[in-house]
């Protein structure tokens, strides 16, 4: 019987199998950050252990870091302590750290790919659920808890139950103004935030094959939002070209050997999955969420659903609670809804392509007076490149704040919090209650939709907006 | 309620500690307290009628982030078992790795359980991990539950994953010899 892409990568990393138990999986690359690693290092110390393979772990500081005045010591004491603890731990255990102020620092899921560390066929873990991002390269990448971080530090291996496999195919032509973020919000709205639980997803189909690497990362990033352990896309020419020449990528002949192997990483034609779903790209529109889970999303042209349309009583209760938190009504359209903040950032949508798309739309325009707009690049490298291309100027002239890299208002661990009661359209991945700050109300959307909202001050249909602005096109 | 996410269990701003202890104080922080740190009397943990070591929760409990802090907070608060009809994967692993049992029951049983607890807040529930049973005392309500045999053994014996992996040193090195490199 044929093997899926997932099977091929997983099987190649099994050290041993425990009967009726989990597999012992070898981990090629381990990323760590300041929030989920301190207790793991403490554990090693208590056991008198070293990091087994220090060069296979890479650390960065991203969740807590301020996005202003990054050259100064972190003002908030607890954040500073956590970042300093990471620095101390990395030094003591010999782990490479791209910390605050380092030219390669950034959100962990942005720097892995941009440095060429993330490569097809790898197993990659990080104490962070959005590790699924790295699956865009055809690697098995998933988030783990701190106890598991400790396992990997101590042994370079992890005990892991083999998940089931799911294939999600998107075929056909995407409409104008529809981008990767809309695809994934659409899928989650269709299959719910638990529709992928227990599965590892492979995205395939013509609409996926046509996407750039950065767009593929956006899709895989949000796999966890449907409950899946991870998501992956078979590597192809787009992947190889992206990896080629990056600092950590294999060079010369080694690169050729690598590509020869990577080409074998596709699902066999007779491979079977535990579940297969197929969607038509033409059915996808620009998407926005209205509630407090990423599954509560609608097409921009549609109103918020009526509660009676929902099947179960507990689902109705959840949605009622969500709408009351968001101060929205069933049946209300989101188009035209006034917003207060725009956050363009996070490991979902803060790469060069995202920033370029936003800049192209807002060039020569001014933000609406009622909104505050933060553009937070995903990494130091993205920041540098954006400046080299003059995007920072476009943003500043539009009245946006262009700041230093980090997770920022994606989860509001640093000072960048959306105030209580304010509405924020955000390119991040979670709209949970209080995620962007206590009482903050989040609409998830694509960078294009966020850019249009920044200029109009309202949730807008990017397709109509572009029509009325003859100097921009999609 | 469904889809209780890890940002509700423990909001991100309380993840700044570098030890495992003390997270229970901020368990469900934004539901437990109103603004200005005044306890919210409408929230179940603040209702003296309900107490115990078993947390009963709606479908898709623990979705969202990988933060093990969520499991630590629930354990630290004093819970030892969470009952739901469906758990998010990472949360389930994190719970098991910290001696917290995520116990999955059918949707129908969960509803009966909710109804019973609502009618009688002092309902007592007995969980037998060895036998894999959950029994509501003084009532006919009972069910069996599944658990991976390896995880069960680990929970019962307090078996340690890292000790086990360390014992595989030779296998791991052998794997590294034959692994694909460029
Ligand atoms: S940007 Fe947001 S989702 Fe991504 S790693 Fe940071 S906190 Fe997590």
Walk me through this protein's architecture.
The complex is a heterodimer of chains A (474) and B (182). Chain A is α/β, with parallel strands linked by helices and 474 residues long. In chain A, 32% of the residues lie in helices and 16% in strands. Chain A is built from 16 helices and 19 strands. In chain A, helix 12 packs parallel to helix 15. The longest helix of chain A has 17 residues, at 77-93. The termini of chain A are far apart. Chain B is an alpha/beta fold. Helix content of chain B is 35%, strand content 12%. Chain B has 8 helices and 6 strands, in the order ααβαβαβαβββααα. In chain B, the strands form 2 sheets. Chain B has a 3-stranded parallel beta sheet with strand order 1-2-3. A 3-stranded antiparallel beta sheet of chain B has the order 4-5-6, with no helix packed on it. Chain B starts with 5 loop residues before the first helix and ends with a helix. Chains A and B meet through helix 2, helix 3, helix 5, helix 10 and helix 11 of A and helix 4, helix 6, helix 7 and helix 8 of B. The structure holds iron/sulfur cluster. Iron/sulfur cluster (SF4) is lined by residues 62-63, 107, 109, 128, 130, 346-347, 407, 410-411, 428-429 of chain A.
Structural class assignment of chain B: alpha/beta
Q: Indicate the overall shape of chain B.
A: globular
The quaternary structure here is heterodimer
Give the SSE string of chain B.
HHEHEHEHEEEHHH
Major sheet of chain A, described briefly? Answer: 5 strands, parallel
Order of strands in the sheet with most strands of chain A: 5-4-3-6-7
| Order of strands across the main sheet of chain B | 1-2-3
Our Rg estimate of chain A from Cα atoms comes to 22 Å
- Give the proportion of residues in helices of chain B: 25-40%
- Beta-strand residue fraction of chain A: 15-25%
State the secondary-structure class of chain A.
alpha/beta
Shape of chain A: globular
Mean pLDDT of chain B: 93
> How many E strands of chain A?
19
Give the largest chain-chain interface (CB within 8 Å): A-B, 75 and 54 residues
The Rg value of chain B, from CA coordinates, equals: 19 Å
Low-confidence stretches of chain B: none
